[in-house]
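anyone seen this seq b4? input:
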Amino acid sequence: MKIVCSLLIALGLLLPAAGCVKTKQLERLGLITAIGYDEKGDIIEGTVVLHTFESKEENVTQIITASGNTSKGIRQKQNIKTSHNLVSGQLRVAVYSEETAKKGLLQLVDTLNRDATIGNLVYLTVSKGKAKDLLKKAGQKEKTNLGTYLYNLIKQNIKDELILSPTLHEFNHSYFDPGKDPVLPVLKLEEDKVIIAGMAAFKDDLLAGELEIEKLFYLKTLEDNYESGNLELEIPKERLKEYILPASSETEEQKEEPLFITIDDIVSTKKIRLKDREKVQFSIDIKLKSRILEVSRDMDLGNPKVIKAVEKETAKKVKQETETMLKQLQEMESDPVGFGNIYSAHLDRGKSITRDEWRNIYKKAKFDVHVENTIARTGVID
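predicted toks r here
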């Protein structure tokens, strides 16, 4: 009897506690799937994309903008503009305007780091123009879950090996590494549709410049290995002129057109080493294995001599474009490849260099680039 009474008393004590548990009804939540930040004078303008669930409509996208001195202050002002409880656990993409990125992202990125509900796989991006305009106009086009749409856009391009992964974790890793700098994709509106226009290169947390979309292959070749990449190359026609088959229907204008060769199924490996520490000279060896997918002029690709010539000229073009990109990065004082880490590894034991010291050394660095392209097979020819 005493045991029964004790159980009843314990149950009575538990019931009030259970009644105090705060429940969150799905219809009351505003799931933040994307955020954007812009400069507005001396303050920050923040935009959130909400995914909400209504009783009549299955899901709805709402976009709310507010201004403040800090991201937390902005969140409070956004809260009073909606009847939904804003939660950031479903955040997928953060968009920073170019103007904001030029002033530094550390404070805004640190806010994401300190939010325990936000995972480190959130994608960080830079927008051409205002982040607010990009999100609002894209939101009008993509009525359902804009944040997820932007996330899938970036994820697909990473999967296709067109851009480098821009997660919060990778940004932090590159930023806090004194021998490397972050890069983030640049988003742009084209006919109210969001596209990836290039890659933003950073000097610490400051936007230093932008690499065009055509240069991303060469950056990824140095930063990572390709498993199945593709690339279109413009080759000076005179270099392969003797291998181009004449066409009777060809006009004089067509004869003067440049030669384009597309290679795909690219598998790449690279080896970067410090050749001379005093002269800051790096040796870069890139090896490609690829397939000819398309050639803009008729060539006898069954002829081994032609294939050897194409291998040589495509390798020469990749070398040239890689050197141009490296020079561009040096002018930006941005080191997304991590040459600083390779240099630091060759310092005397116990010695290290600061970020500023590496910046000055990096300006003087020389790069000996060697490229070898082996064409395994040929594909469709146009």
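The radius of gyration is 27 Å. The longest helix spans residues 304-332. kinda curious what u guys think
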